[in-house]
Amino acid sequence: MTVSFHAIPTEDAEHLRNGGSDAYGRLPETLIADGPGYPCRHCLTAIATGDELLVLAYRPFPQLQPYAETGPIFLHKKPCRRYIASEVLPPALCSSDYIVRGYGKDDRIVYGTGAVTPADRIVARAAELLSRDDIAYVHVRSARNNCYQCRIDRSSSVG
Asked: Which residues contact 1 (CB under 8 A, 6 or more apart)?
């Protein structure tokens, strides 16, 4: 099995860049990146110092329910290309470790799956979790602040 990393959908990014409201019904705030620490959740790269960015509340779940975590994310204010890759750690995942956690088909946390994971083990840990029948997908979240980074899904190998 291979895994694939998924940034937030382009439709979500365009909605927010075009004046749409965030998960709390508020307009995104515009900031200027004043150094490192602003990973764009659409292209999954760092937003360069001096570039404009949006900060907003994002909920990476299809509907409200008790496990539908909402939190702050950053986006490039100008359009960027959505990150898509299999088994390649996105450039934005440059911290030493992250929380890697499995979710079921009902979009709820599968208890016992969340663990602080060294960055170089994210692909292997996600593959371990996704080999289980009760795991539909995996989230990568900040180990310090629990902020959503990206989603990992199963991908079929071609060959």
From this structure: 127, 130, 131, 154, 155, 157
The range of the structural domain enclosing residue 46 comes to 10-82
Q: What is the mean pLDDT of each run of 10 residues along the chain (159 residues)?
A: 94 98 98 95 97 98 95 97 88 96 98 97 97 98 95 75
Structure pTM? 0.93
How many of the other CB atoms lie within 10 Å of CB of 7? 25
Count of structural domains within the chain: 2
- Which residues fall within 8 angstroms of residue 11, CB to CB, at 6 or more apart? none
Q: Which residue matches tokens 């902020």?
A: 147
- Is residue 10 helix, strand or coil? helix
Please report whether residue 5 resides in a domain: no
